[in-house]
Amino acid sequence: MSTEEIHCCRSSLLVSRSSLVQSDEMEAGSQIEAALDGHHAAANAAFARRDITAYQALFSSDLQYIQRNGITIDRRRLMQDVETQLSRRYHTESSFVREALDIDGGQVTETLLQTATVKASVLGFLRRTWRVQRHGLYTWAMEDGQWRIVRVRVLSETVESRWILGR
């Protein structure tokens, strides 16, 4: 075999190995993405049922939630805020677009654009509707065999609100 033929075969082998590694990474990424999609669906369902326990289970007990203003809150504080929201709302719609998924060792970070509409009632005749659009980084890690959110960094957030009088 000539030197040129050996070089050609080595290049083909390297390309094949690289393709296999990329294929394995893509398959693992797809499996992780599907698992996270399931967790997002579970979060929406828990929120719709007003099930704070199920919603809380998606977050690590060591959660760091970095708000848009730079203030970091823990899981206890986040759940207090969520519980307040759940007690007042009567309708919620939520969706997200995953812009990126970065797998780094044992952690996965999603870049998400979330949109939510929340309707709440005050005194039964005064209603308020919020439309929230949040862009953030959500870092997940495996804890006790489950993916849990360990860190959230809100990059931007816009909130629109309007009041409606009457039933």
Give short descriptive properties of this protein.
167 residues, alpha+beta, Nuclear Transport Factor 2, Chain: A, six-stranded mixed β-sheet, 3 helices, 6 strands, 40% helix, 48% strand
Topology, element by element:
Layout: H1 3-49, H2 52-56, E1 59-66, E2 72-73, H3 75-88, E3 89-104, E4 107-122, E5 126-143, E6 146-165
Parallel strand pairs: 1-6
Antiparallel strand pairs: 1-2, 3-4, 4-5, 5-6
What this model shows, in words?
- With 167 residues, the chain is an alpha+beta fold.
- The protein has one domain: Nuclear Transport Factor 2, Chain: A.
- Helices cover 40% and strands 48% of the residues.
- It is built from three helices and six strands.
- The protein has helices spanning 3-49, 52-56, 75-88, and strands at residues 59-66, 72-73, 89-104, 107-122, 126-143, 146-165.
- A six-stranded mixed beta sheet has the order 2-1-6-5-4-3.
- β5 and β6 (146-165) form a beta hairpin.
- The chain starts with a helix and ends with a strand.
- Mean pLDDT is 84; it is low at 2-22.
- It holds the Pfam family DUF4440.
- This is Nuclear transport factor 2 family protein.
- Residues 40-149 form the DUF4440 domain.
CATH fold category name: Nuclear Transport Factor 2, Chain: A
Give the mean pLDDT.
Answer: 84
Q: Major sheet: size, sense and barrel closure?
A: 6 strands, mixed
Percentage beta strand: over 45%
What is the helix fraction of residues, given as a range?
A: 25-40%
**Mind telling me the CATH class?**
Alpha Beta
Number of helices: 3
How widely separated are the two ends? 85 Å
What is the count of structural domains?
Answer: 1
> Which parts are unreliable, with pLDDT below 50 for 5 consecutive residues or more?
2-22
Structural class: alpha+beta
Spell the H/E element sequence: HHEEHEEEE
CATH architecture: Roll
Task: Give the overall shape, derived from the CA principal axes.
Answer: elongated
What is the C-alpha radius of gyration, as a whole number of Å? 22 Å
Number of strands: 6
Strand arrangement in the largest pleated sheet: 2-1-6-5-4-3
Pfam family, one: DUF4440
Protein name: Nuclear transport factor 2 family protein
Domain DUF4440: 40-149
InterPro entries: DUF4440, NTF2-like_dom_sf
